[in-house]
Amino acid sequence: MKVIIDRFEGEYALVELENREIAALSRQLVPGAKEGDVIEIRIDPAARRKREAEIDQLMGEVFE
Amino acid sequence: MFRRKPLSVLPVLLAVIALIIGIQVKPLQKTGAPLPSPSPRARLSVTFIDVGQADSILVRTPTGHAMLIDAGNREDFEVIERYLTASVPSDSAGRPKLDVVIGTHPHEDHIGSMAQIVASSAIGRLCLPKAAANTRTFEDLLLAVKAANLKVTPAKAGIAFALDADTRVEFLAPNSAHYEELNNYSVVAKVTYKKISFLLTGDAESLSEEEMLERGYDLRADVLKVGHHGSSSSTGAHFLSQVAPKAAVISVGKGNSYRHPSRTTLKRLKDQGTRVYRTDRSGTIRIETDGTRLFYQVEKGASGGS
């Protein structure tokens, strides 16, 4: 999904969704972004599998 | 239905007492019921429509000419439309006749419903600053303008026109062609009816205020629409002292997440002795003038001062 930054207010970036609704994102989610920037939001399955493997290994080390 | 109280020139103490009495207007039975149509008397009315954390201002002259400045968020179309239908003359097709429509700048909280307004009204002249936004909201507005066969007048400081024989509108900003932030492209309109002036500043921030001061414009106004929902990035002390308004209106959403209006701005207005009205407390606010005095009407009988 791509969202467009309409404006910044206080701690928030207000983004326009594809259905034209406005949602507030924490500014920390879009470091360095400016008004008019297009932000892509997507799920990353490969990164998820990598995290699962890392956590699984760590759990194997600390569980009895 | 409403107590109308002219703003008297009294010592501060008496003014405060008058304010406390003056703001005890009777609330309407139904919450959210719009204010009735402006009085047919020879008065200019400026209605600050309660569109939450957004702006929409309707100016109506005693001769029935109308100007709309900003059109709230996307979900505010119906409330704005209600005011247009109730207080603006219609053309033969039943569409409200708006001599002038101004989008102060292309943020969604100012042009959210403007595409729908363009599609459903008879507009004489549409003014926008020459500033682009990448949103679909702005694209929709451009498409609506195209479909209505309108051309946009690029708004900038120095443009002036008459709404009727007694009502003059002058743009005091934007003064530059390029800004980092869209807010500073805001069209600042000074509306003068006989001896009374309204300064309507959109979201103009300190940078634009400084430019207006440098240009030496006559900023003095009886009523100030406080810039950028009362945020601390607008309404600088020097700017405010030059405007020296008797009354100020802050268009702001109840319990908004941005801490608007800021304490700094409220304190500045208080120190200036300005009477403050807020849409989050009073709902829709209408200020009328006969050319020498001001008359106030609010939708909700909540505190109009702060």
TrEMBL record, chain A:
Q: Which Pfam families match?
A: DUF3006
Taxonomic superkingdom: Bacteria
Q: What is this protein called?
A: DUF3006 family protein
TrEMBL record, chain B:
Report the InterPro entries cross-referenced here: ComA-like_MBL (IPR035681), Competence_DNA_uptake (IPR052159), Metallo-B-lactamas (IPR001279), RibonucZ/Hydroxyglut_hydro (IPR036866)
Q: Name one GO molecular function term.
A: hydrolase activity
- Spell out the Pfam families in the cross-references: Lactamase_B
Please give the Gene3D superfamilies that the UniProt record associates with this protein.
Ribonuclease Z/Hydroxyacylglutathione hydrolase-like
Task: Kindly give the CDD domains that the UniProt entry links to this protein.
Answer: ComA-like_MBL-fold (cd07731)
SMART domains attached to this UniProt entry: Lactamase_B
Q: Which residues form the Metallo-beta-lactamase domain?
A: 53-254
Q: Which PANTHER family match?
A: DNA INTERNALIZATION/COMPETENCE PROTEIN COMEC/REC2 (PTHR30619), RECOMBINATION PROTEIN 2 (PTHR30619:SF1)
The entry's protein name is: Beta-lactamase superfamily II metal-dependent hydrolase
